[in-house]
Structure of ATPase AAA-type core domain-containing protein:
Amino acid sequence: MLTRLYLDNFKVFVNFELQTKSLNLLLGTNGSGKSSTFEILRLLQKLIEGCAVSELFSLNSLTRWQGVNVQTFELDILGNGGQYRYRLEIEHQPNSRQSHIKHERLLFDGQPLYQFLKGKILWYRDDYSKGAYFDFDWNRSGLTTVLPRHDNTRVTWFKKRMTQIYILRLNPFAMQSRSELEVTLPAEDLSNFASWYRHLLQEQPAMYASLQQALREAIDGFDTLTLENDGEHARVLKVKFKSQHEETFRFSNKLEFRFDELSEGQQALIILYTLLNYSSENDVTFCLDEPENFLALPEIQPWLLQLADKTEEEACQVLMISHHPELINYLAASKGYWFERLNGRAVRVNPIKSDNLDGLPVSELVARGWINE
């Protein structure tokens, strides 16, 4: 579970720290930094996957009003029997407009697993004894060089856990029903949901029955979500509905649609319940940007209650940005964080405390602009 994110000298973040729990609701006005916290996680993922610093962190990402050329990022992850702390320092050179890694390190319960300093990598084994020491490209994370071995299981676990931070903003208008092949990760807009769902059925087939039942309870008339052959390798994601009245359908008691033919709300519900069921067997962090879009109040509430139960059981972790009154009133008093930028300066974040709500619903305080007073 991601427990802490620290940022300094990145855009509007100066000495910024967010401590997270299993369920977190991020609130604040537009431009207050909520979505940017998700952006940082995505950039760190891409760096560890192998992208160059110069592709991800430009000179323009420095905080404008500071005269410092070094950016600092830290994140803490709890898991694998201990506490990980990853730290990255990026140095920018204004004259040459070049950037490189100044320092990168990974600790486990305060003990070193990896260090990259002045272009040299030093690895530590699981017993913290020193391992390989060699030169490396200053423009890339040394974690890209990790290959699983019997004596580096802690570093390998951390790299895998970073891939299990899913940063998602659902866009039904981009959905594709046809899948040419399986994909192991969903796209940010979930446009490749059909291909990811195809992978999930192979990875954890036991999820199928529980997901179908959850969707029957959530969507009126829903029967099954299936992948049907469409050529030698291609599959098409289809949804079948059953009629409550025999005269509704002329030739069958079921009607089927391609996934992209469904309403935006139906697509959203299917995806949100898939995320819930997927999380039951996986240690994941979902960063969901306004998941309630396209849904009515009666539709989002049952999903929200199940989400709260799963995070309470620590079956998964969720960081969620929302403007939905139902979500705000249900979660903000105990799970909410308020982001604000005073006079256009650095972002600050504070937990929302129930004793400061004056008896009004949190959504009403947000609407009136009183939440930060």
Q: What stands out?
A: The mean pLDDT is 89. The radius of gyration is 23 Å. Residues 34-49 form the longest helix (16 residues).
